[in-house]
Amino acid sequence: xxxxxxxxxxxxxxxxxxxxxxxxxxxxxxxxxxxxxxxxxxxxxxxxxxxxxxxxxxxxxxxxxxxxxxxxxxxxxxxxxxxxxxxxxxxxxxxxxxxxxxxxxxxxxxxxxxxxxxxxxxxxxxxxxxxxxxxxxxxxxxxxxxxxxxxxxxxxxxxxxxxxxxxxxxxxxxxxxxxxxxxxxxxxxxxxxxxxxxxxxxxxxxxxxxxxxxxxxxxxxxxxxxxxxxxxxxxxxxxxxxxxxxxxxxxxxxxxxxxxxxxxxxxxxxxxxxxxxxxxxxxxxxxxxxxxxxxxxxxxxxxxxxxxxxxxxxxxxxxxxxxxxxxxxxxx
Length: 332
Description:
This protein is mainly alpha-helical. It contains 17 helices and no strands. The chain is elongated, with a radius of gyration of 40 Å.
């Protein structure tokens, strides 16, 4: 996988992005944009409907305006706009709710039917929560990681659902992922997180973007919005991380300082002369003075250390007659 093979490149890319002078301001702008996009996505049926409309090629403003018109037209206080109700409405309404595209209308009906079966598998779980669990599930990620999204058993089996639409649906459902695009790929190449040879591979772009978000410790949609913001600029320049110490330098340092972590200072001429004198005295038999260990039982005394003679130990005093063995018996 790209995120594993180029882990060092992703770390460097995260450093470049995090050390931008206006990083905090960019992060705040991206967070506001993500919150703005999240509004109106609380209803699961509208998440599917809006995601399908992205295939029309219209701008996001046009798509959201049509979604608002749909809600205003069919909103009912007594009956929520659930997936089954929205599916029924779209089955009988015309193509005007899909910019005149019949294929989009058919795709929306099939996707709503697929998620209706998915919701039926859960007991007392909100429809939006079912979609979010699907978007972030291990199985969904695995089908995409293995580049077989068309065999994913929910949205992938619907004809016409490509990787871009599948990712748009996952992001709209609250998934922690990214919609790959040429704009994001261009910034990833500038950051060094993506090779130019894989610029047009959406799976590689997706893996690099998700890996970068992990190293930035940010939700993937938030990181993607920052990348899109950078892509709007004509010129992209990033700071370079400090160079790492080479392996050869480390070997030389170890050889000089005996394997310690820091390089030791070279001895002065006076220190070298003192060391030569100590070696000459050792060759003549004049051992240098040792440091006495006061805790050692067999440590030499001060006089012995200075070359003096050791005093002979005094003879023990004779014990009193009363302490002699058998003395008590003789007194008796």
